[in-house]
Amino acid sequence: MATAEELDCRHLLCPLPVIRTQARVARMAVGAELQVVVTDPGALEDIPAWCRVHGHEVVATEAAGDEQRIRIRVGGG
């Protein structure tokens, strides 16, 4: 598995996790991976929906206590 950049979106509420994810992905190369760490449970639906619309791939999601991790592979969107 490729090394992923990490984006800390803990304690941010909708829509900030999506906005910050969008800003980071815009600076990344196609094929790069980003792991977004969130505590807002709504982000588990919002970020994958944003990925589908913009041509990115959700590689994995993982829950660890109050935190969730969403791993994204940047597409050519």
Strand portion, in percent? 25-35%
Secondary-structure element series? EHEHEE
Query: Which whole number gives the mean pLDDT?
Result: 95
Quick one: CATH class? Answer: Alpha Beta
C-alpha Rg (nearest Å): 11 Å
Uncertain segments are none
Q: Compute the number of helices.
A: 2
Count up the domains.
1
Largest sheet: 4 strands, mixed
- Intertermini distance: 22 Å
How helix-rich are the residues, as a percent range?
25-40%
The total of beta strands comes to 4
Characterization of the model:
The chain has helices spanning 16-25, 43-54; strands at 5-9, 33-38, 57-64, 67-73. Strands 1-2-4-3 form a four-stranded mixed beta sheet, covered by helices on one side. The radius of gyration is 11 Å and the shape is globular. By secondary structure, it is α+β, with helices and mostly antiparallel strands. It has one domain: Translation Initiation Factor IF3 (2-Layer Sandwich). The model has no long low-confidence stretch (mean pLDDT 95). It is built from two helices and four strands, in the order E-H-E-H-E-E. The longest helix is centred in the middle third of the chain and has 12 residues, at 43-54.
